[in-house]
Amino acid sequence: MSLDLTRVTVLRPDGAALFPQIDLSIPPGTIATLTGASGVGKSTLLDAVGGHLSANFRMQGRVLLDGRDVTELPAERRCIGVMFQQAVMFPHLSLADNLAFGLHPSVRGRAARQAAVTEALDMAGLTGMGARDPATLSGGQRARAALMRTLLARPCAVLLDEPFSALDPERRHEIRAFALATIRSSGIPALLVTHDRADADAAGGPVVALS
């Protein structure tokens, strides 16, 4: 499954383009990086790719997943997952129930769903913590849980919007390594927005600098 952007840009309400048109092909298991100054449109581009673009903006170009044009599809039909800067958990649900919320509809039956959640917790280094209140988790634990919840939905691609910037410096390297390795092993393309050159270097894929 590849993610391809063809002559993509975003137009402001006045019709001016936020950035020059982008052509980018991201193969399976590859993490491409978007860099650039604050306000240049990096997160807005992710919104356009994911189908979450504000009504004040308009996208030009095409977004394709494995050759299928998803440009006109609503966000819920694009099969594109998103991981944000803040790892938001539902406060009224346990950690396990938060992960179960993201399960793909094809995972049916109580036993199968429990097994999928248990495996995800184990992969994230959160074994035995399913009953925990998310508020009791550290920032790094929430970040790992949020990534696994995103992947449990079996997305065809993942968008990462500054997912490591809110982490403590001493944990950032560890969580980044876990997240990038997990995405690569899943074999899906990913697009990462960051201000940190170290994030781009760790991602190891193509780098697009917006201007």
From TrEMBL:
GO MF entries: ATP binding; ATP hydrolysis activity
Start and end residues of each ABC transporter domain: 3-211
Recorded superkingdom: Bacteria
Key word Secreted present: no
Keyword Manganese: no
InterPro entries (UniProt xref): AAA+_ATPase (IPR003593), ABC_SmlMolc_Importer (IPR050093), ABC_transporter-like_ATP-bd (IPR003439), P-loop_NTPase (IPR027417)
Gene3D superfamilies for this protein: P-loop containing nucleotide triphosphate hydrolases (3.40.50.300)
This protein's UniProt keywords: ATP-binding, Nucleotide-binding, Transport
Protein name, as recorded: ABC transporter ATP-binding protein
